[in-house]
Write a structure and sequence with these properties.
The structure holds two protein chains of two kinds. By secondary structure, chain A is of the alpha/beta class. Helices cover about 35% and strands about 25% of the residues of chain A. In chain A, the strands form two sheets. A six-stranded mixed sheet of chain A has the order 6-7-8-3-9-10, with helices on both faces. Chain A has a four-stranded antiparallel sheet with strand order 2-1-4-5, covered by helices on one side. Chain B is built from 13 helices and two strands. Classes of the chains: A alpha/beta, B mainly alpha.
Amino acid sequence: MTERGDVIYEVRNLCKRYGAVVALDDASMKLHAGEVVGLVGDNGAGKSTLVKCLSGAHQPTSGQILLDGVEREWSSPHDAIQAGVETLYQDSGLAPHLSVSANVFLGREELKPGILGKMGFLAQKSMDTRAHMDLDRVGIAVPASGRSVAQLSGGQRQAVAIGRAVAWASRVIILDEPTNHLGARQAGEVLHVIQRAKEQGLGVIFISHTLPHVLQVTDRVVVLRLGRVVKDAPTSDFDVDSLLGTITGLITD
Amino acid sequence: MATTDVKQPSSPVTQVVAPTSRLKSALANQQLLLLIVWLVMVLGFSLKSPIFFSVDVAGNIFADWGPLVLIALGELIVVISAGIDLSVGANVGFSGVIAAFAMKALTTAGVASTPTLLIGVLVCVVVGSLIGLINALLINYAKLVPFIATLVTLGAASGMSLVLTKGAPIMGGPAGGIMLSVPWIGPFSKPVLVVIVVVAVMWAFLHKARFGRYTYAIGSNAFAARAAGIDVKRHIVKIYMLSGFLAGLAGFFFYLRLGGGAPTSGYGMELDAIAAVVIGGAALAGGVGRVSGTVLGALILTTVTSGLIIVGVDPSWKRVVVAVLIAVAATLQALRKSEGGAS
């Protein structure tokens, strides 16, 4: 589709075992700057495990994770976030009792200058303004940053979650089922945001069961089956049927 | 809240649901409701008894309010984080007893009153914080739910208090202590004024600072907090240690009033603290609660107790009144939730 940048995020020979269960078996994949890679597979194929390793939530049993060509080890999601790798988890990324701006800034609050800031006091007004600007920049308009997230509709919540991830990500953004439970129009908006992130030069990993969305928004598709990468090819090589066949194992190379 | 102006979206997302019904806005202001309830109580008791509306009675009410609001504020932060701290009452007794032993020893050794009292308050808050630390460790590493973890420390602390004292108060501390509990400015004794400062500090840290932001975030969605890079375990330690610290401070408050450390001080107060927090509008499910609500909740509880005694009603009725207040407050909370808004 568009010209690809350098390899931004890469995993080599990643394995993850939970006791006797092998969730991820020698998985390797590359993500380029300005590229959207779809990660698909049946339930239990290892998508969630791979996402958790990529986002720092879990640590792989063996294998390497490289960001900008440098090997990294994430001991917690905090490490990955600090390095510019943002992850949007299915459904549960926001704190419903907090305001939109508090959610956007969660974990990296702006503090007041001087002694008050040293004591942990928040620069609330500045965060409200910036949250609004950041969401606007990535193409999401949610009115009133002061409003609590519980008062938003499901589509708006998802928009805020994605907006937050895109606003903060400096290298990679991982979206786990971002179009779940959304209507067609809202899903379209989410795909639009993904396009914007891509144009900004971020690497995007898009995990979804909704194959038409995958075909619509991605440049390349990585298919996982039983913990292994069984296919890694340009999206143009697939249609819904051949992708489904590869996922279920009916089609093999 | 400053409301940023609404621009026309470049990529329009669905309209905001705006359920600002009149019912909701009335319910939303729990603090105002509480203030009205309290004023009606004061008015009712004053009409019933001519002596109720006096500095003396106010002094008594605030003397009861001081330690209660201390432990209730600790309970509040724990409840906002979606936890519960059952150990605060036992913590009051235990920290007071340990401090009483220390102050007795210092006084016997001839140390003056003021330094002895200062060491006493230090012992109280250190012992209190340590009990909080144990709670947090049990929750974080033994993976106990807060209810069980703090039930364990409740039992251990109250049992140890009785064992160490053989059931009798530990007296023999500095003589100057008990004088601190008399009203100093109007109905307020010096310790009560300290409590008011603590309330202000807690308000600032819970509602204006990162400490509070993390506390609400963890109670609202611990997964999201963790995913956002917040060190949840570390924050749990802070929360329970602060609750323990405040309970220890309440223990010193009781020491001053009694002039000694009694193992039974604070007995059952965890339930009063939870009552104050719930009446104040907090939700045990986490993520909701305000310092102002808890302060008023505690004030209503102590006013009911004093008022019933003064107007000659059997004070056992207090429990019934508190039960009704809890039921009303919890119902309002549930209604507010079904209206679709959070505080």
